């Protein structure tokens, strides 16, 4: 068994009873006023993602960001009630799609590779319902 999680499919994470995964993305979500601000500016300037991305799961109930190396009892770095999250229209900067999210923790920026634009569109539509 490998210590590094698979890049092609998300790890099996525990979901609540009756909760199903709607959209699966591989990207990065950062606080624009936090530590990821410099990297976000560099990514917009260069037009490519820099650094490590995470699995982002939109379920029927929650928005989840899977921890980089999930362990029993510590699966998610971020977990928001889906009803409290809204998404703006995604903007393309080179090979990166930037989506602004409004969350209970404030404004967040989601950066997704352009090759996942159909999944990004599904993610945005699902949060706008």
Question: Separation of termini?
Answer: 40 Å
Outline type: globular
Low-confidence spans: 1-6
The counted number of beta strands is 8
Keywords:
17% helix, alpha+beta, single chain, 8-stranded antiparallel β-sheet, 129 residues, disordered N terminus
What does this molecule look like?
This protein has 129 residues and is an alpha+beta fold. Helix content is 17%, strand content 43%. Strands 1, 2, 3, 4, 5, 6, 7 and 8 form an 8-stranded antiparallel β-sheet that branches. Strand 7 and strand 8 (106-113) form a beta hairpin. The longest helix has 12 residues, at 117-128. Residues 1-6 have low confidence and may be disordered.
Topology diagram in text:
Blueprint: E1 21-30, H1 37-46, E2 54-59, E3 62-71, E4 74-81, E5 86-87, E6 91-93, E7 96-103, E8 106-113, H2 117-128
Antiparallel strand pairs: 1-2, 1-8, 2-3, 3-4, 5-7, 6-7, 7-8
Provide a brief overview of the structure.
The chain has 129 residues and is of the alpha+beta class.
